[in-house]
């Protein structure tokens, strides 16, 4: 649903409540503004950098979310820990703070042997990735 009179970025700022927060998890903002501003600065020196980074992030994050989902379904905790750890780094590199926090939580749950907790948290990854991709697209300097 579009909210009349609001720019894309303002709409996404209003929709900051995620399924993770609805589940009672305290989460950082969806996007790390400072990280995105640094990426914007790099864009000035290397045109196309932002688009390339976003494309690579989307491809890698989708694969990593799928790997987490598959590992959680089979309760392969070490595989899940590694996939979640990789997703944490991928998300952090582009300023996807909330996705990074969720995946770090999953890695910790897997490391601690909390299969049920990890499985519950993994279900939050796909919706958060979708919201993150939409928010990145709406970022004011997005090209």
How would you describe this structure to a colleague?
By secondary structure, the chain is mainly alpha-helical. It has a single domain, classed as HPT domain (Four Helix Bundle (Hemerythrin (Met), subunit A)), CATH 1.20.120.160. It is built from eight helices and no strands. The chain has helices at residues 8-14, 19-22, 33-45, 49-73, 77-94, 97-111, 115-122, 125-138. The longest helix is centred in the middle third of the chain and has 25 residues, at 49-73. The radius of gyration is 16 Å and the shape is elongated. The chain starts with 7 loop residues before the first helix and ends in a 5-residue tail after the last helix.
CATH class: Mainly Alpha
> Whole-number average pLDDT?
85
| Tally of contiguous helical segments | 8
Please give the number of β-strands.
Answer: 0
Structural domain count: 1
Q: Beta-strand level of the residues, as a percent range?
A: under 5%
**Largest sheet descriptor:** none
Q: What is the CATH T-level topology? A: Four Helix Bundle (Hemerythrin (Met), subunit A)
The CATH H-level homologous superfamily: HPT domain
Q: What is the CATH architecture descriptor?
A: Up-down Bundle
